[in-house]
Structure formats: C-alpha cells, structure tokens
Amino acid sequence: MSVLIRTADYQIDGVAIRAIRREVFCGEQKIPEALDFDGRDATAQHWLVEMGLVDRGTQAVATVRSRTIAPDTHKIERLAVLPSHRRRGIALALMEFVLKQLQQQGGKTVVVHAQGYIQPLYDRLQFLPEGDRFVEAGIEHVKMVRCI
To answer: Spelled out in words, what is the top-level CATH class assigned to the domain 2-147?
Structure first.
C-alpha cells in the first residue's frame, strides 16, 4: 500500500476533503456543518493524504488546511484522519509535510487550536501551548504555537 501526501486543489479535491471532514467532525464529533464549513475553504491551502490500494486506485484518508492570518504567520486547521486509518502515523507525516511546505513559502510562525486529546501530537511536533484552554465548537482546545 502506497501513501501520497500532496497539496490539494480545493476546486478539484473539495468532494474528498468535505467527505473526510464530514465523517470526522460532523459525524464523530457532532460539530455542526455550518461551523466546520465556515466559508474559508476556497481561499485556504489544503493538503490530502491518499492511500494506494492494490487494484482499487487511491482513497483520500486525511486532510488539513492552513490560512495566512498575519504576515509570515499561518494557522493550521481542520486536521482530520478517517477512523479506519488512525494510529498509523498519518497525522504526524501530514503535519511534518505541511510545516515544511509553509516554511518553504516563507512562513515563520504556525498556530493551531489543538483539541485536548490531540495535544500530544503537537507536543511531538514542538508546538508550545499559549494561554488558557478554551472551548471551540463545544470541544476543549488549547492554542499552540511553533516557529518554523
């Protein structure tokens, strides 16, 4: 089975991106679609992870987006991995890829609003917590920042 991480074109890949996010955020986490699909997707950068399946083509299994929120500062959002593909290092590999891409684009700082359960992933990626925990979309988060 092969794994491909690539920059996505939202106009072309939007169906796959939305399907992953609907399953993870709207289905599993019960986040209303209006909160997840906030109107910023068309101007955000997106990435996809695709798994190559023997004799069955590829399947999109993970996605993430980023937005420029200030000069040289990006916010990474909407990291989602399908339940059937978790615990394989996909989120870590995707985040490492995205961080390199943002650095190559001249980014200096990256911000995430990490859900509490996923904070260890961001700790591993050398993000540092900043400020108090807060609730976003009914889920506890912490702001985390990393220089790249």
So the answer is: alpha beta
How far is Cα 106 from Cα 108, in angstroms, rounded to an integer? 6
pLDDT in tens, 14-45: 999 999 999 999 999 999 999 999 999 999 99
Give the C-alpha distances (Å, rounded to integers) separating 89 from 17, 36, 81, 93, 144: 19, 24, 10, 6, 20
Looking at the whole model, is its pTM more than 0.90?
A: yes
Q: Enter the DSSP assignment of 106.
A: T
Give the CA dihedral 66, 141, 137, 47, nearest 10 degrees: 20
Distance CA 85, CA 75 (A): 24
